[in-house]
Specification:
5 helices, alpha+beta
Length: about 140
C-alpha cells in the first residue's frame, strides 16, 4: 500500500481601482495575482513545513523580519514552559535574559583568571631573549 499526501498554500488577489483606470494604477499594482505552492507532504518534517510556510508568507508580501518574529513567538511566549524554552536555547546556543547576569559573572571570573595567568607568564617569561631580526624596537627602529 502506498501513501501519498500533498500540502497546498493558495493565494488569490484582485485589485479594482476605485476611480476607474489611471496610469498610477497600471504601474503600481498588479491587478490580479494567483499563487499556488504545493509540496509532497508524506514525509515532511516540522522544519520543512516551516520553510514551506515561510516561502508562502514571502510570496504574499510578509517581511522576513516579521516571519522570524512570528516563528520565535511560537517558542517564547507565556504558554510554553520554561523548560521547553531552555531546550530550544540550548539547541541553538541562545541565552535567555534571565541568564545574562550569571553569564556576565562567569565572564568576569574568566577575565580575572586570564589576567592572573598572563601576569604569571609575564613574570616568568617576559624577559626571554629574542632572536636578532625577529622584531624591531619601535622607539629607534633597531632590531
Amino acid at each position: 500500500m502506498t501513501y501519498e499526501a500533498e500540502v497546498q498554500f493558495k493565494f488569490d488577489a484582485t485589485f479594482e481601482p476605485t476611480y476607474g483606470t489611471s496610469s498610477w494604477t497600471d504601474d503600481d499594482f498588479i491587478p490580479e495575482e494567483h499563487y499556488l505552492i504545493t509540496a509532497p507532504a508524506a514525509d515532511l518534517s516540522a522544519k520543512q513545513y516551516f520553510k514551506l510556510f515561510e516561502k508562502f508568507m514571502l510570496c504574499v508580501g510578509m517581511d522576513p523580519k516579521s516571519i522570524r518574529s512570528g516563528a520565535m513567538s511560537l517558542v517564547f511566549n507565556d504558554m510554553v514552559s520554561e523548560d521547553e524554552q531552555r531546550k530550544v536555547c540550548k539547541e541553538y546556543e541562545l541565552t535567555m535574559d534571565e541568564d545574562l547576569e550569571k553569564k556576565y559573572q562567569d565572564f568576569k571570573e574568566r577575565d580575572a583568571q586570564w589576567a592572573k595567568i598572563d601576569a604569571q607568564y609575564e613574570k616568568n617569561f617576559g624577559s626571554e631573549p629574542k632572536i636578532k631580526g625577529e622584531w624591531v624596537d619601535s622607539a629607534d627602529g633597531v632590531a
